[in-house]
Amino acid sequence: MWIDEQGVAHTVALPEPTDVMSDEFRASLDAILAADREALLLILERAEESVFEEDLAALADPEKRAVFEALTPPTALLDTALDSPEALAATIEDTDLRWRLDVVLALGDYIDRHTT
Description:
α1 (23-51) packs across α4. The chain has five helices and two strands. A hairpin with a 5-residue loop joins β1 (2-3) and β2 (9-10). The chain is globular. It is mainly α. The two termini are 27 Å apart. A two-stranded antiparallel sheet has the order 1-2.
C-alpha cells in the first residue's frame, strides 16, 4: 500500500489472492473458514478499519512511496499455520502496515471465491 499526494491509499489487486499465502497458512485458513466463516469476515472488517486508524504519514513519504508504488505484497507473506480466528487477527496485526491492507483485501477475495 502507498499513500499518494492527495492522501489516498492505494493497493495493487492480486489476480490470485493465494499468492500471499503459504500452503500451510492456506490449509489452516480453509479449516477455520469451514468452521466459522462469519468470524473471519468480522476480523477482516475490523482489520480494514484499523488500518485507517493508524498513522499512515510514513507511507506518504515521496521517497519511500516510490519504492512501493504498484508492487504486490511478497509471495507467501502469510506463512504461519492458524489455529483460530483470533490467530488470523493476530497475524494481520503483525503484518507490516505497508502490506496490511493488501493482505486484508487478498484474504477477503479468497474467502469470497471459496464460499460463494
